[in-house]
Design goal:
By secondary structure, the chain is α/β, with parallel strands linked by helices. It has one domain: Rossmann fold, CATH 3.40.50. The chain has 6 helices and 11 strands. A 9-stranded mixed beta sheet has the order 2-1-3-4-11-10-9-6-7, sandwiched between helices. Strand 1, helix 1 and strand 2 form a beta-alpha-beta unit. Helix 1 packs antiparallel against helix 4. The mean pLDDT is 95. Pfam families: GATase (PF00117).
Length: 239
């Protein structure tokens, strides 16, 4: 039986549970095949043993934070181990949101605050290189995806292949080698799932608290079928 590991980095129980449910739904996996490890609660340990692929979820953490807690430093060290197992080994890994910054930093790229995006749907455009990418090749040339981030990759790591951009954030997706992908956007949630997540994080500085209704309306208008297809393509190819 295939086994996919979801590494969750969300201290909030509701958000962690919602993220698992969203990945489960979008990927087409069953609960026996999708194993969740809450990295903020427990070190990575031997969690990579016996898995066919790994999905890195989002997080309220930011790579660019000047003062990092011991917990965040440990998490980023653990994610560095995952990156090494993928880039230097053959473990298929999909890094999302917070994960794209961790991966880019680990590989010598740069992350800053110049291209943060508010919570909601944005239009992405695939690059020419996406036509030959195993995951992106079957996606439409332009499509909507959900974002919501305070930082982004400003310089790709050496050897990384840019696969998708948006007008407000030049680096939305890249690949390194043959087993490692990263997306700034969230590939897994439906509009309703992201609305529920926005409610959990309404006091985390992604938007003003009194803007929640407007954010919910913006999310509800999103058409995000393509990103979910991307996640399913990753699972079907490697698991």
């Amino acid at each position: 039986m295939s086994r996919v590991l979801l590494l969750t980095i969300r201290p909030e129980d509701d958000a962690a549970a919602d993220e698992y449910a969203a990945v489960l739904d979008a990927s087409g996996l069953d609960r026996a095949s999708l194993v969740q490890h809450r990295l903020e609660s427990s070190p990575l340990g031997d969690a990579l043993r016996g898995v066919d692929a790994v999905v890195i979820g989002g997080s309220p953490f930011n790579v660019t934070e000047v003062e990092k807690s011991e917990l965040q430093l440990r998490i980023e060290d653990d994610l560095g181990r995952v990156a090494a197992a993928s880039v230097d080994g053959d473990l298929p890994v999909l890094f999302t949101c917070y994960g794209i910054g961790v991966l880019a930093s680990y590989l010598g790229g740069a992350v800053d605050h110049e291209h943060g995006e508010p919570v909601g749907p944005v239009q992405l455009t695939l690059t020419a290189a996406a036509a030959d990418d195993p995951l992106a090749a079957d996606l439409p040339g332009t499509f909507e995806a959900f974002v919501g981030h305070k930082e982004s990759v400003s310089r790709l790591p050496e050897g990384a292949v840019l696969l998708a951009s948006s007008p407000s954030c030049p680096v939305q997706m890249f690949r390194v080698g043959t087993h490692t992908w990263a997306t700034q956007f969230h590939p897994e949630p439906t509009p309703q799932q992201l609305i529920e997540r926005a409610r959990v994080y309404q006091n985390h500085g992604y938007f003003a608290v009194d803007e929640l209704t407007a954010v919910e309306d913006r999310i509800a208008a999103g058409d995000v079928d393509a990103p979910r297809r991307l996640l399913r393509a990753f699972v079907e190819r490697f698991a």
